[in-house]
Design a protein that fits this description.
The protein is an all-alpha fold. 71% of the residues lie in helices and 0% in strands. It has 14 helices and no strands. Helix 8 runs antiparallel to helix 9 and helix 11 packs antiparallel against helix 12. The longest helix has 21 residues.
Length: 256
């Protein structure tokens, strides 16, 4: 009888939504409540774990808090309480989770779950960027980068947003670090298109090279737009910017 019940449970579990499954870990109650979509109860218990000396160094409760806050963002009716900015809270707990996940093993097992938080946060950041609200965009991007420090596409876009928000020094620092990685990816042929950020990445190449050209850094603008074309050779917008910049004599600024 026990075998039949276990088999039935596994069969039912296999039909749960993929976003209701968390891999690995030692907190069975959190696993069960999250898997059964009892997110409110899971969040309450996970938060209580983060306050106890015995568990506060464990990454797992912070992972569940991040995922529950993500659910509060996309599924607020599943919670008794309202949250002012649950996706911001999801990023906060995701950052704490990654800091405490010293080996990175739990993150690798649940990367897709964290990616869901990233994508929701990016949607809002990209909205601000496309709306030319660069101050809010750069703030949103910075929170995402704390969770995904190796996301060099986002680092480049963040740097461009900062420059447009008149935070030039920090913006240039982000851009320089991201360009080093993007050059390596181009050289090794490892650059991959990110569907979520791709259009704004293209827009950032245009915005940044225009900024450089307008500030008497024509040679650098040409170098950056060349990199952009090498990374995404079939993009017509980058091709047009490339021709525009090369049509301008780099010595024109010196003659003026």
């Amino acid at each position: 009888m026990l075998i039949r019940i276990s088999t039935l449970f596994l069969a039912l579990f296999s039909f749960l939504p993929s976003n209701a499954q968390v891999a690995g870990g030692d907190f069975q109650k959190l696993f069960d409540w999250y898997a059964m979509e009892d997110y409110d109860r899971c969040a309450y218990k996970a938060e209580s774990y983060t306050r106890k000396d015995k568990y506060r160094r464990s990454p797992e409760p912070y992972l569940y808090m991040a995922l529950c806050m993500y659910q509060a963002h996309i599924n607020p009716e599943a919670f008794d309480d309202e949250f002012k900015d649950p996706i911001k809270d999801a990023l906060k707990y995701a950052y704490k989770f990654r800091k405490k996940d010293k080996t990175g093993e739990l993150y690798q097992m649940n990367k897709r779950q964290i990616d869901l938080i990233r994508e929701e946060a990016l949607d809002r950041a990209l909205f601000y960027f496309n709306d030319n609200d660069y101050y809010k965009a750069s703030s949103e991007f910075k929170r995402i980068l704390k969770v995904m420090p190796g996301d060099f596409n986002v680092a480049f876009i963040t740097g461009v947003a900062m420059i447009n928000a008149r935070n030039v020094t920090e913006g240039e620092r982000n851009i320089a670090a991201s360009l080093d990685s993007l050059r390596i990816q181009e050289k090794e042929g490892t650059f991959e298109k990110d569907d979520v950020t791709h259009n704004v990445l293209i827009k950032s190449f245009i915005s940044y090279t225009n900024y450089l050209s307008d500030n008497s850094q024509q040679n650098k603008a040409l170098e950056i737009i060349t990199l952009g074309r090498q990374l995404v050779p079939d993009n017509t917008t980058l091709k047009a910017q490339y021709k525009k910049l090369y049509a301008k004599d780099p010595e024109d600024d010196e003659e003026e």
